[in-house]
Amino acid sequence: MKNLNHVHTALVVIDVQRAFEEWESAGRRRNNTGALRRIGQLLAAFQQADAAIFHIRHRGEPGSSFEPHGTGFAVLDEARELAGEPVIEKTVNSAFIGTDLEHRLRAADIDTVVICGATTNHCVETSTRMAGNLDVRPNGA
Amino acid sequence: MTEANLSDEFAEIVCADDVIRGLAPTASLR
After folding, report:
1. Does A42 sit within 8 Å of B19, measured CB to CB?
2. Tens of pLDDT along chain A (141 residues)?
3. Prediction pTM value
């Protein structure tokens, strides 16, 4: 992969919340056990480069594993935002629907996004494809 | 999820190592 311009590249971290840990504790299998460590490395690299980072959290309906006042809503420690890093809540699988993420990316003159999080074949994939549709060059890490 | 599923003309699956190297060529992995 060619060099990324840290001024125009943003990291988007999606749904790294305790609900997934709770599901795993309840017996669901995780197929990429190293993902959290890698997300932490990506966050550290973007923070070190002073590049833009957007944290996306899923806010579920009452009764959902992701309901705001439930135990599953909280971010996992490995992906916790630093002061000043924006946290955006979404309610569907795309991080662009019902949020101001697109506006924030354009306002910050971001033309490339690196998208990671949980789970790849749900919210990460949907958000990645939509970033492509919006002409924000997406990279799923 | 395989690379073929997501990598297309609109998006690319990339390795975190490559992103980190591409973002800051001198950065070291922790």
Report:
1. yes
2. 678 899 999 999 999 999 988 888 888 877 777 889 999 999 999 999 999 999 999 999 999 999 999 999 999 999 999 999 999 999 999 999 999 999 999 999 999 999 999 877 789 999 998 998 898 877 766
3. 0.88
Check if B4 contacts A (Cβ < 8 Å).
no
Query: Is B23's CB within 8 Å of A45's CB?
Result: yes
Go through A14-51 and write b for each residue having 16 or more CB atoms within 10 A of its CB, e for each that does not.
bbbbbbbbebeeeeeeeeeeebbebbbbbbebbeebeb
